[in-house]
């Protein structure tokens, strides 16, 4: 299967091309990937995602997947941490590993002349990580340092308080990097179990962009990933959203309170998603000209910036926003957000706002395709969201097809002013928790 993208896409940081092909490749061992071949530069960008991420932490082992991910390249096979780093650098390759709520991500960049050696080294990290005691304690210390820093960061506190209230005992309700207590208690056996649970063949998504053929990619996939466990840990169930509208104040000594707010959102595969996406861009997309930026910052100077965003996750959907404001004016800012939310829910947006937003969204989309790495990242994200392979061609048409009537209908459905919950981290004047 392949797709010819329009010449408007800016690719590979090279002059514009008339077309580029996205191919679906299946390895002899049954691993599927999306590929864009580009042979003018002798390197390849490879992106791998393992669905599940920190949400597959086992009960009582919160932070295990995150800590395991930090240890993947701290020694593998016959190489300790220093030896692995030296071998990677000698190949002029780059690897990065990260864990988030719904996926463990792996990024690799390597030269064509060193492809086989780079893939062998990456395989050892994925399949044969050592989890040496000294590395485990070093990375554990880094995680604990980050947790200590988060405990003093009002932005982190706001997000964590909202998640805890919204999702309770579900993995979404606690931070994926764990707590001081849970991370301190993790053993090497816990890390080994997290590795087997999170990195398995039944949850792999792959994309490659660069100097590699479909046949070579198929061979690479089996060599790189074929020895991973066939199945991993069970995914968590749907996260029940538990918050009603209202305000929660988390007392924290800071002159600038941080406010996280939101309610339930919309799934990525919902037929109304594009209308909701445009609506959000108008209401609070974060750009100057968005309604909340205009009303809260420009007209009243209550914040330096405010933004809202749709958050469709694997097991829940949120519609979230965030801003910081002086403690003395937090209540006023909250009232304005509520009022603008209610106005948009009732009236929708104007024809001028719709036209301007369509121009921005369709014009900025091709600019994301500005190199092998970004393209590979986009392609693997498309797969995880179950988007069709022709999405880069059809996406802008879907934006253009949204009408004012669509926006008004979806605004009434998606925006729930009475359900907005505000978590305020600070010492806001005249604002108290009401639930």
Description:
This protein is α+β, with helices and mostly antiparallel strands and 435 residues long. It contains 15 helices and 13 strands. The protein has helices spanning 64-71, 81-90, 115-127, 133-150, 154-167, 180-185, 188-198, 214-225, 273-284, 291-298, 330-347, 351-364, 372-384, 391-400, 404-414, and strands spanning 22-26, 32-37, 43-51, 75-76, 79-80, 94-99, 103-111, 204-210, 246-251, 256-264, 306-312, 317-326, 421-426. A six-stranded mixed sheet has the order 1-2-8-3-7-6, sandwiched between helices. It has a five-stranded mixed sheet with strand order 9-13-10-12-11, sandwiched between helices. A two-stranded antiparallel ribbon has the order 4-5. Helix 1 (64-71) packs across helix 7. The longest helix has 18 residues, at 133-150. Mean pLDDT is 94; it is low at 1-19.
Total beta-strand segments: 13
Which range does the strand content fall in? 15-25%
| H and E order | EEEHEEHEEHHHHHEHEEHHEEHHHHHE
By secondary-structure content and strand pairing, the structural class works out as: alpha+beta
Span between N and C termini? Answer: 54 Å
Provide the gyration radius in Å: 23 Å
Helix content: 40-55%
- Tell me, briefly, the overall form: globular
Largest sheet: 6 strands, mixed
Low-confidence stretches: 1-19
**What strand line-up does the widest sheet have?**
1-2-8-3-7-6
Mean pLDDT: 94
Number of helices: 15
């Amino acid at each position: 299967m392949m797709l010819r993208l329009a010449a408007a896409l800016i690719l590979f940081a090279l002059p514009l091309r008339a077309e580029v092909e996205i191919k679906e490749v299946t390895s002899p061992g049954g691993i599927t990937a999306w590929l864009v071949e580009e042979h003018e530069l002798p390197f390849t960008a490879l992106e791998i995602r393992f669905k599940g991420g920190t949400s597959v932490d086992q009960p009582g082992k919160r932070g295990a997947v995150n800590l395991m991910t930090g240890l993947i390249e701290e020694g593998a096979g016959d190489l300790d941490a220093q030896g692995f780093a030296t071998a990677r650098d000698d190949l002029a390759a780059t690897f990065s590993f990260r864990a988030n709520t719904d996926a463990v991500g792996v990024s690799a960049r390597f030269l064509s002349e060193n492809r086989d050696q780079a893939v062998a080294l990456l395989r050892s990290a994925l399949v044969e990580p050592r989890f040496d005691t000294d590395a485990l304690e070093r990375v554990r210390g880094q995680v604990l340092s980050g947790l200590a820093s988060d405990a003093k960061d009002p932005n982190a506190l706001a997000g964590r308080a909202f998640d805890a209230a919204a999702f309770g005992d579900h993995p979404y309700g606690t931070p994926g990097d764990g707590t001081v207590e849970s991370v301190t208690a993790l053993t090497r056996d816990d890390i080994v179990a997290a590795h087997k649970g999170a990195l398995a063949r039944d949850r792999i998504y792959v994309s490659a962009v660069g100097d590699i053929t479909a046949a070579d990619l198929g061979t690479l996939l089996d060599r790189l990933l074929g020895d991973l466990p066939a199945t991993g840990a069970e995914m968590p169930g749907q996260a029940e959203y538990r918050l009603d509208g209202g305000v929660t104040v988390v007392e924290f000594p800071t002159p600038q309170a941080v406010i996280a707010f939101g309610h339930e959102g919309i799934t990525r595969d919902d037929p109304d998603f594009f209308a909701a996406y445009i609506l959000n861009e108008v209401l609070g997309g974060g750009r100057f000209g968005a309604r909340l930026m205009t009303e809260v910052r420009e007209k009243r100077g209550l914040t330096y910036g405010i933004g809202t965003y749709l958050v469709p996750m694997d097991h829940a959907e949120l519609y979230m926003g965030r801003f910081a404001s002086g403690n003395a004016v937090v209540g006023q800012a909250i009232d304005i957000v509520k009022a603008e939310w209610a106005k948009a829910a009732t009236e929708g947006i104007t024809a001028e706002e719709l036209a301007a937003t369509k121009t921005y969204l369709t014009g900025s989309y091709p600019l994301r395709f500005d190199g092998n790495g970004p393209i590979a990242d986009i392609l693997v994200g498309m797969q995880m969201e179950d988007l069709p392979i022709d999405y880069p061609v059809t996406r802008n048409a879907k934006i253009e097809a949204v009408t004012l009537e669509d926006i008004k209908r979806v605004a009434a459905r998606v925006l729930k002013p009475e359900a907005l919950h505000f978590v305020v981290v600070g010492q806001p004047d005249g604002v108290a928790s009401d639930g």
